[in-house]
Fold this sequence. Notes:
alpha/beta, 11 helices
Amino acid sequence: MIKLAIFGAGGNMGTRASKTLVGDANYEVLHVETGEAGIKRLAERDLTPVPCDEALAQADTVLFALPDHLIGAIAQEIVPKMRPGTLVICLDPAAPYNEKLPRRDDIAYFVTHPSHPPIFNDETDPEVRRDFFGGGLAKQSIVSALMQGTDEDYAKGEAISRKLFGPILRSHRLTVEQMAILEPALAETLAATCLTIIRQGMDESIRRGVPAEAARDFLMGHLNIELAIIFNETDWNFSKGCQQAIQEAIPVLFKEDWKRIFEPEELRASVARITGG
């Protein structure tokens, strides 16, 4: 049995982790929570928080289900109290990549993050197809990294990740830096920003007189086929007119050096802002 302490057990990710693990005979879950709202949330499930020091004295695995900007300060306080051999799991690469985890050679640091259910999938059940986040219904992939520790530590961390985020489509082993390239740089700084601008463009077309329902239907359909073309899900191609529009629009919409968001110095600066400096 794995004795796993969830720090931030009453938060969103802590609650998701707890609901997944509680009741599984392979896990004894220790809920650590100090916030009033989080404690209330635990009480609604008839769960009682365990004091921090008591949890650390028992746990062989610690899960940080905490906001990125809080992990550094909390880790500095609790990592020195952990038992030798403890596996620490972070659910995002930001804090580990920004060196917010204290140096301690006799414990292991494992980082994992879900990819969320993909746009192109083979799900057929309507409810499963509406599982956009990955709530235990739709298959999703995970990416993980062993920041320090042994292959046995990685195997243990990956097994827990598969439990937390299953059903799993694929599991990818990366480095912490590669995970940071994926998020925040690729998924948030680039993709989320571009999609936000696309939404603003739809709103602008509506402001200029296009009926809202027509604008949304037209855009959603075009996004579907355009994504399929760009990511090689179909052997169709853009029309010559569309290709010309793309080439003309790139220098208007994007700075020539936009790929600098992937440079190490830019990435570290971005992660530093996310984790509070």
